[in-house]
Amino acid sequence: MRVVEAGQAAGVREISCADARIAVREALAELDRDPPSSEVRRLRDDALLVVSELTANALLHAGGVTHFSARLNGAELELTVGDGSTDVPRRQPVAPGLPGGHGWMVVQRLGSRVDVAVRPDGKTITVALALP
User: Fold this and answer.
1) Maximum CA pair distance of the chain?
2) How far apart are CA 110 and CA 52, in angstroms?
3) Buried/exposed 70-90: b ≥16 CB within 10 Å, e otherwise
4) Residue 124's CB: how many other CB atoms inside 10 A?
5) Parallel/antiparallel/unpaired status of strands 3-7 and 122-130
6) Which among 89, 31, 32 is positioned nearest to 60, based on CA atoms?
7) Comparing C-alpha atoms, which of 14, 74, 23 is closest to residue 47?
8) Per residue in 92-105, pLDDT tens?
9) Which residues, 6+ apart, have CB-to-CB distance to 130 below 8 Å?
10) Residues 6+ apart with CB under 8 A from 85
């Protein structure tokens, strides 16, 4: 199992979308071939989209990312994002012609498993994507 973390335990004070995307690429490094298979490219693209959505939402709506990890765990890539909000993610109304409102739906569609754990001091969202 390969684990790449960002956050206080990893010595990073603030976690950006870019930090999380770098961690995803590092976690997937052992799957890369030259050139990577189309299945690995699809997994990487899906994982980067999921982690961008989760970290951007944590930064915009939940006071920032408190911790992040990307781990190859058996037959899955597991992405975990923590933030300081106890609000459970939900689908937002979509305004015709305006951006936004699709992120949580995208995360749920791409993940083979999506778990939300709420604690008194925030929440952790874990999204699993099946490995090729």
Assistant:
1) 45
2) 13
3) bbbeeebbbbbbbbebeeebe
4) 17
5) unpaired
6) 89
7) 23
8) 777 777 667 788 99
9) 75, 76, 112
10) 58, 61, 62, 63, 122, 123
Query: Per residue in 60-80, pLDDT tens?
Result: 889 899 999 999 988 999 999
Dist. CA 113–CA 96, nearest whole Å: 29
Token readout for 35 is: 């050139």
| Whole-Å CA distances, 21 to 56, 120, 121 | 11, 28, 25
Assess contact for 87 and 128: CB atoms under 8 A: no
Q: What is the DSSP letter of 35?
A: S
pLDDT in tens, 105-114: 999 999 999 9
